[in-house]
Amino acid sequence: MTNTTKKLYIKTYGCQMNSYDTKRMEDILRPLGYSSADEPKDADMVILNTCHIREKATDKVFSDLGRIRPLKQQREKDGGQMVLAVAGCVAQAEGDVILSRARYVDLVFGPQTYHQLPEMIAQITGAYGSKRIINTDMPVEEKFDHLPQENAVNGPSAFLSVQEGCDKFCTFCVVPYTRGSEYSRPVADILNEAKRLISSGVKDITLLGQNVNAFHGEGPDGKTWGLGRLLQELNDFQGVERLRYMTSHPNDVQDDLIAAHRDLEKVMPYLHLPVQSGSDKILKAMNRKHTAQSYLDVLARFRDARPDIVFSSDFIVGFPGETDEDFEATYNLVEKVGYGSAYSFKYSARPGTPAANMQGLVREDVKDARLARLQSLITSQSLAFNQSFIGKTIPVLFDDEGVRDGQAHGRTEHNQSIHVKAPKRVVGQILDVVVTSAGQMALHGEVKQEQNEAA
Ligand code: SAH
Ligand code: SF4
Ligand code: F3S
């Protein structure tokens, strides 16, 4: 171990799991003397933590690599060094392509090997090292065992990875290939990490997993715990105020998870539960193993347990074989549910997935038109949902300084973004806020009068 100061720059693409992994990479490299650089040009090590989910994601990585290359060359010309690494899901899926297409990349490693970063760096930069490394093994269990017992925290909200990988094999999706099969961390490890986060001031924890409600970790009592049981335990922790989890699959919703939303005051009334399509024919072709109706039934169970719950979802338009009628079924489902927010994407064929070989490709202009229609419906629902809060007083967890002076940023219990007239020092607190106006993306408000003193 060395204390010389070195600079690290990590660019994160993709999902929350990648954001979590980036933080853990920083936790691993800090004891080696690495601190954050603001720009890649100042960094001794640059890591692109990549995402493979859609086509454009990979293109972006290669164009970013092209931009970093001259910076690396400049540093070397100046007598310095820049280790250039590609991590994450593109690395896992296309590591060999990266090494051959971008010969200036030193290191390629997948999502399950970043705990070995110190050894990999030593091999590249050490006295005898000058080789290029590719490391795309999948020792997921070993990874979690070797992550540092230290989490750097910035702000009151944090992610905590509890489950990784996916066994669902939706026909469009690369995740089962890039992240491997489902693995649940032992409960004791998760609780320890939660305690560390809370002792550093975290009040809002989002449990992460590619299929988080399939969580089935080994409990301290020797029994297998599901997500509902885990939430119950965390709900009793002093200091944490808000619990969320993502991403869930409709087929893995157990009764104790529904009960958690009914009984546990810290479990927030917000749920991201993707459905992808409203057409049973398309859902079947996607291998989702549920129907539109069975999805709606699951939502109804959550609503019975927690009437003010709000849902979000992901949608794919233009999956192979999707007709106008199939798309209408998706549109109707969205109208029926009334989402607080939702993400929608044009289908993009991914190498190695079953859907990539399917017939009935949908024309690009048709996909564009469907996406625009769906997004305008979702936007109007988000706007209506946000506007329904105008005039109400709601608890807001302040998580950041605002972009404008005299403003702070926070989150509502329903996971809406809110800009509030308030001093910087409110960050980290939960205060009652009166909502004064609302747009599609965010609310605006003022800290409730009698609390101004305290704030
Ligand atoms: N595990 C989560 C999320 C997976 S990826 C789940 O099961 O829902 C996030 C979203 O990206 C998916 O929900 C899906 O809507 C979208 N997506 C995944 N593969 C895609 C593809 N090939 N083309 C377009 N969108 C895709
Ligand atoms: Fe991908 Fe489906 Fe698994 Fe989600 S459930 S990660 S969409 S394969
Ligand atoms: Fe992307 Fe991998 Fe997440 S493909 S969405 S970074 S699991």
Mind sketching the topology for me?
Blueprint lengths: L5 E7 L3 H14 L4 E3 L8 E6 L4 H23 L5 E5 H14 L5 E3 L7 H9 L7 E3 L4 H7 L10 E5 L1 E2 L10 H4 L4 E2 L2 H13 L4 E5 L8 E2 L5 E2 L1 H9 L6 E5 L8 H9 L6 E3 L7 H6 L6 H14 L4 E8 L6 H14 L3 E6 L17 H24 L5 E9 L5 E5 L5 E5 L8 E9 L3 E6 L8
Parallel strand pairs: 1-2, 1-3, 3-4, 4-5, 5-6, 7-10, 10-13, 14-15, 15-16, 19-21
Antiparallel strand pairs: 8-9, 11-12, 17-18, 17-20, 18-19, 20-21
Bound molecules: S-adenosyl-L-homocysteine (SAH), iron/sulfur cluster (SF4) and FE3-S4 cluster.
Radius of gyration: 23 Å
Shape: globular
CATH class of the largest domain: Alpha Beta
* Most strands sheet: 6 strands, parallel
Total tally of structural domains: 4
List bound small molecules. S-adenosyl-L-homocysteine, iron/sulfur cluster, FE3-S4 cluster
User: In total, how many beta strands?
Assistant: 21
Q: By helix and strand content, what is the structural category?
A: alpha/beta
Q: How confident is the prediction overall: mean pLDDT?
A: 95
Are there runs of 5+ residues with pLDDT below 50, and where? none
Note the beta-strand portion.
15-25%
From the coordinates shown, what is the CATH architecture of the largest domain? 3-Layer(aba) Sandwich
